[in-house]
Design a protein that fits this description.
The chain is 47% helix and 11% strand. The protein is mainly α and 131 residues long.
């Protein structure tokens, strides 16, 4: 049975969007790698995987739950970069918005990008307009 697109249902919209592109995926991971190598955050150096969790949780929300094994709380990210669509409405998680946010964050924190010949904002803004 075909899926019906419901405009008022974000899950329905997300399912209808085009998956992220291979160039977006490569750029995203290069940017996260550059940030991990160059930016100390909250007094710590975070690895690439930690940075992915930080930026996904920061942009698209997280869940706070009691720790089942000790006292205190856990913060869990509900999103995965592999599931982000190429583009979409700004209020829904998407790779175009993620790359734009990473670009701005890195620029504000003095990151020297490893591939300056492909500025992500210009490339992916065109993708967004074409979508």
């Amino acid at each position: 049975m075909p899926t019906t697109l419901r405009l008022n249902d974000p899950r329905s919209l997300r399912a209808a969007m085009t998956p992220r592109t291979d160039p977006q995926n490569k750029r995203f991971h290069a940017m996260v790698r550059d940030i991990a190598k160059q930016v100390q955050w909250a007094g710590l150096w975070w690895d690439e995987d930690d940075w992915k969790k930080l930026v996904l949780g920061g942009l698209y929300g997280q869940v706070v739950a009691p720790n089942p094994f000790k006292h205190g709380l856990l913060v869990m990210n509900k999103h995965r970069s592999s599931k982000l669509p190429k583009s979409g409405p700004d209020e829904l998680p998407n790779m175009t918005a993620m790359i734009s946010e990473l670009q701005a964050f890195g620029d504000e924190n003095g990151v020297v990008w490893s591939d300056p010949s492909k500025p992500p904002l210009e490339c992916y803004e065109r993708d967004r307009e074409a979508a």
